[in-house]
Amino acid sequence: MIHIQSLKFSYRQNRPLFEDLNLHLEAGHIYGLLGKNGAGKSTLLKQIAGLLFPDGGTCKVLNYTSAQRQPALLREVFLVPEEFFLPKVSIHTYVKSYAPFYPRFDEQAFYSYLKEFAIPQDQQLTNMSYGQKKKVIISFALATNTKVLIMDEPTNGLDIPSKSQFRKVIAAAVTDDKCIVISTHQVRDLDNLIDSIVIIDDHKIIFNQSVGSVTDKLSFKLLTQLDDRLPVLYADSNLRGHAVVMKNVNMEQSRIDMELLFNAILSNRQSIQELFN
Ligand SMILES: Nc1ncnc2c1ncn2[C@@H]1O[C@H](COP(=O)(O)OP(=O)(O)OP(=O)(O)O)[C@@H](O)[C@H]1O
User: Fold this and answer.
1) pLDDT of 189-223, one tens digit each?
2) Which domain of life is it from (predicted)?
3) Which of 167, 201, 235 is the last residue of a domain?
4) 241-247 vs 232-238, strand pairing mode
5) Probe residue for ligand 1, chosen from 10, 13, 17, 183 as the CB with the greatest number of ligand atoms within 8 Å
6) How do beta strands 77-80 and 148-152 pair?
7) Complex ipTM above 0.90?
8) CATH number of the domain that 144 lies in?
9) Ligand 1 closest atom vs CA 153
10) Do the beta carbons of residue 172 and residue 164 sit within 8 Å?
11) 23 and 128 share one domain
12) 138 shares its domain with 237
């Protein structure tokens, strides 16, 4: 659904952000895009949405070159940006103005998402709090029914109950013909939601695996003592003990800890990548 090949991009001369970046994302999945500050997550999402153009290589979405911004593609892609502007209009006027760009927009679903998020429907958008505005955009994004839905830090600014509502509505929205990509630093907000993990670092994608394949190859444990005989790839030690990522030699089932996985890959990239090759 999204095929990025040998992507090169820089904002400034001689300061490449992406070099030979490759990424293939399929329909029917919810991808979590993780990376350090400044790794290029927002930039990559904007390349997919056709808001930034490659310096080299290709970025194809639904077989369209995203930089060409063809209407047939733009009506199938929705990006919820990290920072956004909403006009000084009512929710109703906003929907009447922007929904026509999306042929499968479901107005009934939009108002039911707002209800789920407890958003008052008769306010001017500019009079809402940041979190309320974010919920309006997320509701709108889901109601567009685009095949590609991209969200940049969607849970920033959401209160605690809204985060679980967010997980609920996104999980219900994914269908076999949709691809959802969510970037975040709040990995716990994506717990039980994403089914694949993509990590960007050092100008390229260094990891792209399903949660199932991660838990097949790796096990996540809390140990009271570290033991040299164990196939530990990364350990995070604190007062409670040692949270470790190990080779899953005994085919044990464990629950993925995305924060631990992320730190493990950044600090022991080669050994972990070899396990998945
Ligand atoms: N419009 C711009 N002009 C110049 N440089 C930019 C611009 N936007 C981003 N950058 C730079 O590109 C790099 C990647 O930025 P980007 O926002 O894509 O990273 P990110 O992974 O989303 O970061 P964060 O996790 O902090 O949101 C950063 O070094 C940033 O300073």
Assistant:
1) 888 899 999 999 999 999 999 999 999 999 999 99
2) Bacteria
3) 201
4) antiparallel
5) 17
6) parallel
7) yes
8) 3.40.50.300
9) 27
10) no
11) yes
12) no
